[in-house]
Amino acid sequence: MNLPLTGITVVALEQAIAAPLATRHLADWGARVIKVERPGSGDFARGYDKVMQGMSSQFVWVNRTKESVALDIKTEEGRRALDALLGKADVFLQNLAPGAARKLGLDAKSLVARHPALIACDISGYGSTGPFRNKKAYDLLVQCETGFLSINGTPEAQAKCGLSIVDIATGMYALNGILMALYRRERTGSGTAFEVSLFDSMAEWMSYPAYYTRDSGTPLARAGARHATIAPYGPFKAGDGKAVFFGIQNEREWQAFCARVLEDQALASDPRFSANPQRLANHEALEAIITDRFAGWSSAEVAEKLEAASIANASLNDVAEFLQHPQLHERGRVQEVSSPVGPLHVFKPPLIIDGIEPVMGPVPAIGEHTGAVLAELGLEAAQPGGTNARAYGSAQ
Predict the structure, then answer these.
(1) Which of 6, 268, 321, 343 could connect to 258 by a Cys-Cys bridge, CB 3.0–4.6 Å?
(2) What are the DSSP calls for 103-122, one per residue?
(3) CA angle at residue 23 from 109 to 148, to 5 degrees?
(4) CA distance 255 to 214
(5) Alpha-carbon gap, residue 221 to 229, rounded angstroms
(6) Do 51 and 166 have their domain in common?
(7) Which DSSP string do the residues of 120-136 spell out, in sequence order?
(8) Which residues contact 244 (CB under 8 A, 6 or more apart)?
(9) Which of the residues are catalytic?
(10) 320 within a domain of the structure (yes/no)
(11) Is 227 exposed, middle or buried (0-12, 13-18, 19+ CB in 10 A)?
(12) Buried (b) or exposed (e) across 307-334, using 16+ Cβ within 10 A?
């Protein structure tokens, strides 16, 4: 297939989530991604869990369709192999520990100075400058530093995000930078060195709460499952005890909600609720009115009324229910991929392009492609237990 990124070669000295997520999206659409791993142990995300027939769910998520090459880049042989790979690469991405890439001459600026057409990306915790530049960073820790936990959870208790929100944000900004740099190179022939940090990525995602807090003089309150600054928006209990989630985004929807769902047009012009700031200030009274009205209907009836009034609403599914969601299965959003432990079922990438299907290739074993890739480079493939085994790893 003529995939959008066919012909692009990516070399990634990557681990955990942020960098592998960026390169997996490139692999999905045709790029050849060569993942450089430590001989023996590989990417430490391989050990996060063993729930997918012995493989880590997080590793499977971000590493399909890649070739794994095991190299010890601190040895002469390993570094020679990596340098040979870089000579053929269009894109290089690394997320080594703070300062490690620069010591090895593998930071983005150094590499683009040696390979002017290369697109090189450094991913770090806090960036290459500033007082935290040498501080190690993981997802939850950056959630803490950027104030995310202070706005997430209930009034009684802070809570971390249940997803790797910082890693995902960073990986997507790295992907964005790589695609922009590829477009720039197409026009100018020049490579690009750039960096993206977990802290800066989360700072961007924290813009609205930060602006609200700074310019209102009031910290954004933790609101649990309810929206902190829009009302009504969140869970409301129906007569059968089940919660229905819905949200009002504008005054047109508020009018329709009062008239067609609550069947009380006068409520729309009540001074306590006439605009969102007033509804937010009086949210307890508003929620009491809504809950009282909903008590006469089942959750299914409430949802039907909301849908008829074109009010956005949702069921509160758990993950097991999400896995059975008809929207996933009727649209074919789940696909089988191969792996060292057999077939695994994963979600397809969210982009849908007419006439083009993403690659959805296998999840690699550690060093699975070492021999083949080194042979392409004219280097001797490692033999288990041989003199180059530590440098290149085993292709077995």
Answers:
(1) 268
(2) HTT-SHHHHHHHSTT-EEEE
(3) 85
(4) 32
(5) 9
(6) yes
(7) EEEEESS-SSSTTTT--
(8) 235, 236, 237, 238, 294, 299, 302, 303, 306, 313, 315
(9) 227
(10) no
(11) middle
(12) eebebebeeeeeeeeeeeeeeeeeeeee
Q: Are residues 84 and 191 in the same domain?
A: yes
Residues 6-32: pLDDT tens digits? 999 999 999 999 999 999 999 999 999
**148 backbone φψ class: left, alpha, beta (φ>0; ψ -120 to 50):** alpha
For residues 155 and 37, state if they share a domain: yes
Same domain, 249 and 354: no
Query: Residue 60 sits in which domain range?
Result: 9-206+326-392
> What is the domain-level CATH number for residue 92?
3.40.50.10540
- Angstrom distance (rounded) from CA 382 to CA 365: 16
**End-of-domain residue from the set 294, 315, 336:** 315
Question: Would you say the pTM of this structure is higher than 0.70?
Answer: yes
User: For 40-49, what is the mean pLDDT?
Assistant: 92
Same domain, 138 and 281: no
Mean pLDDT rounded to a whole number for the chain: 92
Whether the Cβ atoms of residue 60 and residue 51 lie closer than 8 Å to each other: no
Burial 70-99 (b: 16+ CB within 10 A, else e): bbbbeeebbbbbbebbbeebbbbbbbbebe
58 plus 200 within the same structural domain = yes
Residue for token pair 């809504």 = 290
Specify the number of domains making up the chain.
2
Specify the pLDDT at position 221. Answer: 87
Contact yes or no for 13/50 (Cβ under 8 A): no
Could you tell me the CATH number of the domain that includes residue 285? 3.30.1540.10
Domain end marker among 255, 286, 315: 315
Task: Find the DSSP H helices in the chain.
Answer: 18-28, 57-63, 76-88, 100-103, 108-114, 139-145, 148-151, 165-188, 198-205, 207-216, 251-256, 276-281, 283-294, 299-308, 319-323, 326-329, 370-376, 389-392
First to last CA, the chain: 30
